[in-house]
Specification:
- The protein has 171 residues and is mainly β.
- Helix content is 0%, strand content 38%.
- The strands form two sheets. Strands 1, 4, 5, 7, 8 and 10 form a six-stranded antiparallel beta sheet that branches. A five-stranded antiparallel beta sheet has the order 2-3-11-6-9, with no helix packed on it.
Length: 171
């Protein structure tokens, strides 16, 4: 079904039967939240238990129509308590294309970062724990695709002028 957006992630809102389908945690504990979820019927919690652990989407082939275009990764993230220092990344399997520290908020807050889409290969959205004692975070409504947070800014337009005639007085 065509939805009209360019989100290329599989299971971006964690609504699949098993919410973590298409996502992998390198460590820590993930759980499906169906009682206090952020949006929809489910969201996912991730409680990393050491630094440098990752929670990563399945790699997707970059559509040819997105090659070289402005890209964006984002997730709605809630931190129940403490201060999260995780980073949100656009990752091509080898290189970090862009990285942003998550917004640490007890309310769901969207963290986003922009990058230029590669012209070949695959791409992933990845969350990385920075500290060994990161707090549990709740994640929902992730996005990977063409940038939705950029817009064209018009330059000033000339609308009129003034013309002066020199005076002969005092010459």
């Amino acid at each position: 079904i065509e939805t009209g957006n360019t989100n290329i992630l599989a299971n971006p809102g964690f609504e699949h039967t098993t919410a973590t389908t298409s996502w992998t945690a390198s460590g820590g504990v993930t759980a499906t939240d169906t009682s206090t979820q952020l949006i929809g019927l489910k969201s996912v919690t991730w409680d990393s238990n050491s630094a440098s652990q990752t929670f990563t989407s399945t790699a997707v082939a970059i559509p040819r129509g997105l090659y070289g275009r402005n890209g964006e990764v984002s997730c709605l993230i809630q931190v129940a308590s403490g201060t999260a220092t995780h980073t949100l990344q656009a990752f091509d399997g080898t290189n970090i294309l862009a990285s942003q520290t998550v917004t640490s908020s007890t309310l769901g807050a969207r963290t986003a970062v922009n990058f230029i889409m590669p012209s070949t290969g695959n791409i992933q959205l990845r969350l990385v724990s920075v500290a060994a004692d990161e707090p549990l975070i709740e994640i929902d409504e992730c996005y990977l695709g063409e940038a939705t947070n950029l817009s064209q800014i018009s330059q000033a337009t000339f609308v009129g002028g003034i013309e002066t005639t020199p005076s002969a007085v005092g010459c």
